[in-house]
Fold this sequence. Notes:
Layout lengths: L2 H14 L8 H6 E9 L5 E2 L1 H14 L4 E4 L4 E3 L2 E11 L21 E13 L2 E9 L1 H7 L7
Parallel strand pairs: 1-7
Antiparallel strand pairs: 1-2, 3-5, 4-5, 5-6, 6-7
Amino acid sequence: MSIEExxxxxxxxxxxxxxxxxxxxxxxxxxxxxxxxxxxLHEPMTGRDAIRDFATRFRVAFPDLKFWGTAxxxxxxxxxxxxxxxxxxxxxxxxxTDLPIGSVQAASxxxxxxxxxxxxxxxxxxxxxxxxxDDGVKVLQQLGIVPSE
Length: 149
């Protein structure tokens, strides 16, 4: 696929997977069956089912969760890079335990807002890898897990 086609796949993924109006069907449409998914705030995951479970838990805990691009996508070969900002408020009636340390009790009301950069690899129109680096320390501070000073 061309660089522009790869950027279109990633643009749709950012809108429908990470955006305000989550579309779970996009996982089967755009993610490879054995997608590798890794962010610093979460355990590495492999496969569509793991990604679907993660997204569902995340959005139940943070019902207003959304992320958006803060710069144009950059692409070269099979790779597309995006910069983003996002967050949400923990109003869900579940504990949020999907963190490297600590957890947040149900409906804490705590808000997180942070930035990051993601590198996605697209092969034959499917995302085979999503690796992101986010401001995890800031999130842990905002959620009250680590001190902010």
